[in-house]
Amino acid sequence: MERNLTAMTGYGDLSDDLLIETLSRLPVKSLMRFRCVSKSWFSLVKDPNFIYKHLNRDENMRLMVRVTYENYDVTDPFNDLITCFFLLPDKTLTDFHFQDLEAEMKDHNPLGPCDGIFCFFENSNINLWNVSMNEYRVVPKHKAHLPCDTSIYCRNFGLGLDPMTNDFKLVLILTLYDSKRLSVHDFLPVAVYSFSTNSWRDVEGLFQMGHYYESNSTDNVYLNGFCYWVAWGHNSYDASILSFSMSDEVFEEIKGPNVPQITAYDESEMASWGIGIYDGCLSLIYSEESGHSFSLWMRKGGFWTKHLTFGPFVETYQPLGFWRKGEFILESSNNRLVLYDSRYREIRDLGITGLWFSINILKESLITVREHNM
After folding, report:
1. Residue 246, C-beta contacts closer than 8 angstroms, at least 6 positions apart
2. Helix pair angle (48-55, 14-23), 10° resolution
3. Residue 331: count of CB within 10 angstroms of its CB
4. I need a labelling partner for 100 at 20 to 30 A (CA). Which of 182, 234, 239, 348 fits?
5. How far apart are CA 345 and CA 356, in angstroms?
6. How does strand 251-254 pair with strand 356-362?
7. pTM, entire model
8. pLDDT digit string (tens) for 25-58?
9. How far apart are CA 338 and CA 328, in angstroms?
10. Which residues, in sequence order, are CB contacts of 133 under 8 Å at separation 6+?
């Protein structure tokens, strides 16, 4: 890869290798400005090898926080809630940057990211957004063909890369309501959107699934060609994990670790599963004792292993996601965002308060979402 990149710059000596290495460590905004230095630099920034070299740097890790809080502006009584996005640009999580969005995406739910690309959705309105390049694409609406006597109950999405074609895909799972049975339909229509063709394609047949998903759920992750969701039962709070192969476009239901299942509604808020990527593995954080202590489970070789536990805490917490090794983002019972370091058993207040939060871990990316460049 280095040899190919070196050839692009036109020098072919060791200084060229050092230049490429230096440029790969720069922020995306700087690289976008440097495209005008020369034709070779312009080509380098667009080269797939350089793009993925830049993307996969260990230090290329950011935290984006979506926070909703009350609007105390009495001049606008009809806008009682405000949603903002903050970007924390380094591992210290001390420097806050307000991240403005296009108006049509401000109230949308964030999904992802995958290689720096987010999906923002609200019902059937979908936008793709590269935060670092501030590029976005409006995804055409999917026209669903529904069985008789059914309507759309909720939509769930998955965003990932097909490693066989190197094409990004967006998966849409429709949970249907059956008006005759007055219950959720047993079959789920599935469609796939291809970035390269900018079009939807229905996956053949209907997927039968004994679980359904929360409305507009964003509790899903992508890893190594597969999307994963937490799936909840119809009449109880038992959970499993649903996987979807981006290449083969088939589903598989995965049993979770052997942990106590939720049996009461009042436990479901604080004693739930949360999935994510920890140390390069599909992982699950399980809330025990109604949010006072937690266990981290990692899936390796098809088996779940308890990696660590932390707590108990005097205060209750809701886990929001994984940060760096041994660190976890939690929401406190008094609606504050905190970082817990399990190695030193330390809790640090991140200085962000609100009614509710969601977090996304992203990498700066040079991958464009513009249609004519895909």
Report:
1. 160, 161, 162, 163, 169, 171, 225, 226, 227
2. 60
3. 21
4. 348
5. 24
6. unpaired
7. 0.85
8. 999 989 999 888 888 889 899 999 999 999 988 7
9. 8
10. 28, 32, 365, 366, 368
Give the Cα separation of 4 and 356 in Å (integer). 47
| Strands in 123-225 per DSSP E | 125-130, 135-139, 150-162, 167-178, 183-184, 187-188, 190-194, 199-202, 207-208, 211-212, 220-223
DSSP letter assigned to residue 140: P
Please tell me the distance from the alpha carbon of residue 374 to that of residue 368, in angstroms, as a whole number. 7
CA pair distance 228, 161, nearest whole angstrom: 13
In this structure, of 49-63, 147-161, 256-270, 351-365, the range with the lowest mean pLDDT score is: 256-270
- In what helix (H) or strand (E) does residue 306 lie, and over which residues does it extend? strand 303-310
CA pair distance 145, 286, nearest whole angstrom: 37
Question: Tokens 């083969």 map to which residue?
Answer: 248
Q: Return d(Cα 63, Cα 67) in angstroms, integer.
A: 13
CA–CA distance, 34 with 143 (Å, rounded to integer): 42
Element (DSSP H or E) covering residue 31: helix 28-34
- Tokens matching residue 363: 């990498």
Give the Cα separation of 286 and 114 in Å (integer).
24
